[in-house]
Amino acid sequence: MTKVQCLAIVQELLWRHSSVGRANGSYPFGQGSESLCRYEDLLGKPGRFSFFLGKRTLPSYTLNMRLFYALLFDPMTKDNLYKVQDRLETTLSKGSRTRKENLHLTLCFLGEREPSLVDTLSSLLELLPTDSFNLCFTHLGRFSKQEGDVLWAGVSHSPELHQLHHQLLTLLKNERIPVDEVGFQAHVTLYRRARCSDLVPIHPFTTEQCAIALMHSHQVKGVLTYTPLFTKVLH
After folding, report:
1. Spatial distance between the Cα atoms of 104 and 179, rounded to a whole number of angstroms
2. Residue 73 CA to its chain's centroid (Å)
């Protein structure tokens, strides 16, 4: 498959996501969570990209795509995270807030990859277990940066989450796809480039349902957007 064909596939996915997906109205995690629409309805079968070269102009993507695997949350969990952001905001002298639709927990950052890898990376998710598990958000933390800190919500230790992360790395190794194996610290980024003196305590809350996704990080009209290319809901 050529790079032009791969780009056409991505174009078709995003086009269907923006029009047919919204019209379809089938959102497993509730209305407003458009990124989790049922791609099997849009593309014929789960997670597979239908090939379509129409008359629409190819999008202005670079040859590589910025990709990562993520854990996505149900609307109630996102609402709770959003409320934590509201509480934090009153303590900040500056900071860039993560948009509600972008809230996620990164399982593995892949970085810039060729579009030809998308199908392989998507198929790996089919090999992961589908057993659901709950996460409990219990505290806030920060990564210190010169331009401003990254503020995040952390979860209590979850053997299931760490096992999932380990299984994902193993599958990537088996496919000879190199990744940076830095220590895994489960967190959800709430603010970037932030300045605050003290982190507020939070009331613990638990996720209701999660999905694993292969995500594409890109700009849409100058706005950072995370688009799921393949999702697998945990039951």
Report:
1. 19
2. 9
Instruction: Using the Cα atoms of residue 166, residue 169, residue 171 and residue 173 in order, give the sign of their dihedral.
Output: negative
- Tens digit of each residue's pLDDT (9 = 90 or more) over 86-111: 999 999 999 999 999 999 999 999 99
C-alpha 34/C-alpha 179 separation (Å) is 29
As beta bridge partners, residue 228 has 215
Q: Is residue 139 part of a domain?
A: yes
pLDDT > 70 in the chain, percent: 74
| Cα distances (Å, whole numbers) of residue 30 to 25, 72, 76, 102, 154 | 9, 13, 9, 15, 24
Eight-state DSSP code of residue 35: G
Residue 176: closest CA among 124, 131, 106, 130: 124
Is residue 148 a part of any domain in this protein? yes
Give the torsion through C-alpha atoms of 44, 223, 113, 45, to 10 deg. Answer: -10
Q: Is residue 99 part of a domain?
A: yes
For residue 200, the domain's CATH number is 3.90.1140.10
Domain count for the chain? 1
- Contact, 23 vs 38, CB < 8 A? no
Residue 219 lies in a domain: yes
pTM of this structure: 0.74
Q: According to the model, what pLDDT value does residue 6 have?
A: 54
Structure token digits, residue 186: 């489960």
Is the pLDDT at 155 greater than 60? The verdict is yes
Domain hosting 152: range is: 64-233
Quote the CA–CA distance of 116 and 158 in Å, as a whole number. 33
Q: Which of 211, 34, 196 is nearest to 26 (CA)?
A: 34
